[in-house]
Amino acid sequence: MKKIIYFIFTIICISSKSESFYINKLNNINLNSIQVDTISQLLLNNKFYKNNEFKVICLSKLENENNNFFLTKTIILVKNNNLLATIKLPIANDDVKNFSVTKIIETVNGFKILISWGGGNNIYNLEYYFYYKKNEFYFVKLKRKEYGPNTKVTTKLKNIKPMIAIKNFEIINYID
């Protein structure tokens, strides 16, 4: 019984150390050795991709700017293990309030990225649609839903013309 109590006490003590303790420990290692973490990965299986293997991967990486550590996130599109496109995501609460990638889903024509952001009286859900055409993915449609405790639910659909090749797509330009 004493061993169990000692074990629980040890776990509580270790978990109660402040974040700055761990951040200071990071200063002693080479930051280039910190690996990128895969948050999610979607293998696209549609038959019109023929013999190509497409993956949509959401990544997270610890960054250091003047000893200020923060997480950055990106979504990458990979074709047959070759990088096709990188979508830099806003930093939650710094760039866009409560920004979060909710899901990445395969569709009949390609895939869509679902995000949410906002808080308080205004919450937004956005769906970015990417279609596969002429051996490339294009941003073609944006669905925007706004709601909140004092706000009526509104949904807007915007077709993107001309379509934007995914390699030229910047999500920050289509947040609001």
Give the SSE map:
Blueprint: H1 2-15, H2 19-26, E1 37-44, E2 54-65, E3 68-79, E4 82-88, E5 100-106, E6 110-119, E7 122-133, E8 136-148, E9 151-165
Antiparallel strand pairs: 1-2, 2-3, 3-4, 5-6, 6-7, 7-8, 8-9
What is the topology, as strand order, of the major beta sheet? 5-6-7-8-9
Number of strands: 9
SSE order? HHEEEEEEEEE
Spatial separation of the terminal alpha carbons: 58 Å
Categorize the overall geometry: globular
The total count of helices amounts to 2
User: Average pLDDT across residues?
Assistant: 80
Question: Approximately what portion of the residues adopt beta-strand conformation?
Answer: over 45%
What does this structure look like?
- The protein is mainly beta and 176 residues long.
- The protein has one domain (39-174).
- The protein has 2 helices and 9 strands, in the order ααβββββββββ.
- The strands form 2 sheets. Strands 5-6-7-8-9 form a 5-stranded antiparallel β-sheet, with no helix packed on it. Strands 1-2-3-4 form a 4-stranded antiparallel β-sheet, with no helix packed on it.
- Strand 3 and strand 4 (82-88) form a beta hairpin.
- It starts with a helix and ends in an 11-residue tail after the last strand.
